[in-house]
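Kindly inspect what follows.
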Amino acid sequence: MNVRIKGMGIYAPGSSITNQELKHKTKLDFDEQKLEEKIGIYSRHIAHLSGINETTADFATKAAHTAITDADIDPNDIGLFIVGTDTPEYISPSTAILIQGRIQGAERWSAAFDINSSCAGFTIAFDTAVKILSASSYQYAVVVGVYNMPAFLRPDDAFGYSIFADGAGAFVLEKTTNNSSCYISGLQLVDGTQWDFIGIYSGGSRNPITNDRLSKGNYGLENLKPLPGDRNVRLWPMVLDKMLSEENLTPENIDHFIFTQINKSVIVKVMNVINQPMEKTTCIMDRYGYTGSGCVPMAFYHAVKEGRVKRGDKVAFVASGAGLSVGANLFVY
């Protein structure tokens, strides 16, 4: 499919907050050594801990503006806005609708909607946008992955605060006749029987927010069951193998891999499983913490800007999240 990434942008609110600063700001304790040595998180950005009055739509809009500037296009030429997130600005209307309004400022012959597939949201939004561009008259699309999970953390959630952070990454996609950059394929995997492991279970139609739920602490991010420790080590190589084999490719044919930035030790294990060097992947959890649907485009942005990915490289994304949902993309940058 002749759709390419024309521009990119990222955004994280405020100054970087180290692990020691996080403990001071939240008055919470956590295993700092494990967080740094195993998971790979040394700092992050969290708007409300920095006194910044910004939330999901603000992060997404700023990342999108940067991507549009990078693409050097007229914002009014954008025909499609898709936001991948499970921490939306509101239940309704969609965050993508807000972004369209902020960027284009009026009624337009554009489309805007969100994809909520937990932390796989951006990869699935990317795949969806490519297919819509290919089959429509739209020339440009803006796809944003954004995360604001700290807004949903309870004040006593030491695990949540140590892991989750704010951030957004955005792509401007362009329909093009340039065959040197193109989208090859996408792949998705889902297991809805795992819906009750971790999530935000209050605020929807099943569990409306009530004083009783608030008083019992049944709100915000809730961990109902422990996640399988080896889940991503099993899933990511399996998803890669299926996606690549369908295109008669192997991991050796891929120039760079971007995975969900949840745990550096898991990424190291996966790269060992597929027998590829760590130089062929990028990790950013050290500086951003875990930014959910925002982490894949944010990591790719750094891979490009820091010279690890160049035009013409084959790139694979694999992202997974609660639910269970997994999304993957294969493209030539």
Observations:
- The CA atoms of residues 202 and 219 lie 5 Å apart.
- The longest strand covers residues 166-175.
- The chain has two domains: 3-175, 182-198+226-332.
- The domain at 182-198+226-332 is CATH 3.40.47.10 (Peroxisomal Thiolase; Chain A, domain 1).
